[in-house]
Amino acid sequence: MLKNTLSRTIASVALCATAVVSLPAHAGKTLDTIKSRDQLVCGVNVALAGFSSTDSEGKWSGMDVDYCKALAASILGDANKVKYVPLNAQQRFTALQSGEIDILSRNTTWTLTRDASLGANFVGVMYYDGQGFMVKKELKIASAKELNGATVCTQSGTTTEKNLSDFARANKLDIKPLVFEKNEAATGAYQSGRCQAYTTDASGLAAERSISKTPDEHMILPEIISKEPLGPLVRRGDDEFFAISKWVLNALLEGDEYGLTQANLDEKKSSDDPNIQRILGTSEDMGTLLGLDKEWAYRALKATGNYGEIFERNVGKDSPLKLERGLNQPWNKGGIMYAPPIR
What we know:
Layout: H1 2-22, H2 29-37, E1 40-45, E2 53-54, E3 60-61, H3 63-76, E4 82-87, H4 92-98, E5 103-104, H5 112-117, E6 120-122, E7 127-129, E8 131-136, E9 151-155, H6 160-170, E10 176-180, H7 183-192, E11 197-201, H8 202-210, E12 218-220, E13 228-230, E14 233-235, H9 239-257, H10 265-268, H11 274-280, H12 296-304, H13 307-314
Parallel strand pairs: 1-4, 1-5, 9-10, 9-11
Antiparallel strand pairs: 2-3, 5-14, 6-14, 7-13, 8-11, 8-12
Helix pairs in contact: 3-9, 3-12, 9-12
């Protein structure tokens, strides 16, 4: 009797667990708003080559921009249905908190303080970076540890100020920070010679050097003094939109891992690989659990290409920045980009 009762209880628990897993997602407030206005509102950097910047016709491009395009394609079926809101470092978090933007995709470092105190959730890591220094070659400085007594330009409202202070203290260097509210002012002061070095994320240094009138006159020093995992943020309190934003990024990473490109997506729809079938929606419907249809990941990948294509086009070998993939390679190719499986 006890054995039969126990068996029925176990079967009931298993059935309930299966039912919970299979429940479709309820649309959250943010998703409802995006669908109602038929547009995603995305906060981006005012101008950072390779991540978010505009051309002479006002067309946005960059890694952070491409993520917004992929997200819009997944939700609205059109990568062009995005309104880009340019924000400086001081404006970005307030814009997200106030609801001015749906998502912040603006080279923002994931830290404990930001994660715990801003009322926002980091979606994931779009780019593993680290803070470095740039100097003019004419100064003949080969290492950041030679900056004793130097004035270093940087931007306020970022993680770079504290990192600079920590680096100087740890290495017993007398470094004088010259801090500006806007990045353009910081780089302008560096270019004019008001400071001997400029410090920000290494990708940002490469971006600034690439748009300099004399890029060959500048050198990025070898030291990386911090961990800067950069990624998008969404407001807390809307788990549905958080899940969608997170899994669109994961889809771009999984596309890179499985070799799904803009060019071969339609061909790959006939693949026998169950992992590819789930990503492209040709077998199980993975979109229902997110409140989307089964081709949500297919549309994201078709709009922008996979993560590797986004990287190479904007900051890698096919861009003026020529950055190496490094840590941003997939886990199975020597990097640490590792997405949870779509299954």
